[in-house]
Structure formats: structure tokens, C-alpha cells
């Protein structure tokens, strides 16, 4: 097989990945809809309205005291793990009831009703039975299809809409993450790089040979 045939074969094999790279690369350059898709969603906080006396423990690496629509919260970091405590008793904060969960989340999404709409019906199994574990994550959905994930241990929110999923999908396509298997995706990426290098190398040989023929 001569170099010209090799070059054409490699070009044919790389045709689809190159098209995907060009389109996705242009998408990343323009970044349409990025602002809304990846906009941070914060728990709404209020000024502290009560005097609390806290004695920091030696094992605490970090602490935050804040007030939400549900009241005061104490967040501490201990041995690299975050814990959500009752600010008055320092006991693990009880799991929120459905009413409390709805109140907290609706207060947060009220900042952008066009994107989030309102919360859909909450199921009983959405709320974990207790919050003694370092991580207690609750996921609910809104009427606009946005998925809200509440990390109660850190009192943090994350939002994931259809636009976010689409952009993440474009990212996966760009980096040849075309299968649900991480190992196979790495193989595809490596093969793509090898083929691209081979295409460039064979093209360089053809260009060099063409230049030499012109000189003769």
C-alpha cells in the first residue's frame, strides 16, 4: 500500500471524528447557552438575627454559621469531612421534612422562575431517614425539567437542566467519549490520536515528494 493510499484510508477513518471535532470545537468557541446551563444555584441566606455562643472544638478545621428560611445552620469540617449541625445543640441536624425541603428549595429557585418554574411533587423516599452520614444528597425536579441536587451535609445546591446535559454530551463527543465505558473511551481517544498523527505524517511525506518532483 503506497503512501497516497494510506493517506486516503486514514482520512476516511478520521472523517467522522474530524467533523465532530470541528462542530463541537466551534460550539465551545461560541458557547451558546453556557451562562444559564452552568449558572450557580445558591441556598438563599439571611442576616443572623440571634446571638449564639459557639465554642470551637480543637478537631474542627472549618466552620460556617448561616441562616436560611429554615433557621440557623452550623457547618463544620472535621477530618476532611463536612457535617451539618444544629447551631444550638451541636447535634447532627435532623433530616428536613418534605415541607421544610420544599420551603428551602422554593426559596432558592425563586431567583429565576423562568428557568426553574416550581417544584414538582415530592415523594416520601426522597428524604433520607437521618443525616448522620457525612453525605446526605437529595435530588428533586422542577416543572421545567431541571434537576436539583441538595447536599445537606454542605448545604449546597447544584442544578442540571436539559441544556446542561446537552453541553456535557457535546463535550463527551468532542473527546471521543462515545460509549458508557471509561476504559473503551480511553482506547478510542488513543486510537484517534494515532490516526491523526498518521494522517499528518503521511500528508507530510506526500507534500515532500511532490516538492521534490517539482524540483526535478
Would you kindly provide a written description of the structure presented here, covering whatever features stand out?
The chain has 216 residues and is α+β, with helices and mostly antiparallel strands. The protein folds into two domains: 3-30 and 176-215; 37-165, no CATH class. Helices cover 44% and strands 17% of the residues. The chain is built from seven helices and six strands; from the N terminus they run H-H-H-E-E-E-H-H-E-E-E-H-H. The protein has helices spanning 3-13, 15-30, 34-37, 98-109, 113-116, 162-174, 182-215, and strands spanning 60-68, 71-78, 81-85, 137-141, 147-151, 156-160. Helix 1 runs antiparallel to helix 7 (182-215) and helix 2 crosses helix 6 (162-174). The two termini are 25 Å apart.
Q: Could you write a compact summary of the structure shown?
A:
By secondary structure, this protein is an alpha+beta fold.
